[in-house]
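Task 17 of the worksheet. Students: predict the tertiary structure of the chain below and write it out as structure tokens. Keep your answer in the requested format; marks are given for formatting as well as content.
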Amino acid sequence: MRGLHPIGADTRQRLIVAGLDPDDLAGLIRRAIEEDLDGGIDVTSTATVAADQRSYGVFACRGAGTVAGMPVAAAVIDTVCGDAASSIEHVAVDGQRVEPGLVLLGVEAPTRLLLTAERTALNLLCHLSGVATLTSRWADALAGTPAKVRDTRKTLPGLRALQKYAVRCGGGVNHRMSLSDAALVKDNHVVAIGGVAEAFAAVRSLAATIPVEIEVDDIDGLHQAIAAGADLVLLDNFTVEMMREAVAVRDERAPGVLLEASGGLALEVARQVGQTGVDFIAVGELTHSARVLDIGLDLLDR
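Model answer:
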């Protein structure tokens, strides 16, 4: 689309340091802006704001949480405003705990362009901060236990890298990024091939070096997964007592095997689960059900 600009050098470097691909993000942002303008113009801003007017705006918190997506919001501003944005001031940093009223980002730019960029920047920043905020609650609940909270592939299409980044900002760890990074043998795979050992052997014959996780739904399945050679075992819908038993079995038979609890877990019992000795707690809601952190853009007189 005409009128959009490359992500600036400073923002690109911030994205790279964060482990995000600036070129992938640029495509996402362009699609979002194109969706907003739909081939036309920002009618309201064009009608109400003089073409040569400039403003200073601040992105400020209206709720408490953990922020994520600062360089992403800056990338939106770069894309819409280009060199016309004379300054983007990063006041807060990703992963920071924030309170209402705290300014995260300050921007001086043409008013029309800043208002055009506002919604896309806030959509991404508020959502990613919501993911980080929810993740931080789980991480806090698990503090002092062996367990780490981690995400799943239950991410919004096109936003996986950003959502997983937000999980890291909140103190969580990532599961596999794609189906090719690691193998997860689930019940349907076992049914399809005829057994746990057969499924593990088939995966190993195709991909000799990637980690292989096997899902089980009882202690007998855990024994089978360990015997097959699993690197990690997913304990699906285990009770807390079953998790303790699974940890004892693992510690006795295969101390190097990692255990991951999954299925129907709630924040209220997170610490209890973490204290069983499992290594990970997989939480799909981190990415598919996180409530946004309320952040807004306010134009200030300077």
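Marker's comment: The chain has a mean pLDDT of 95. The radius of gyration is 23 Å.
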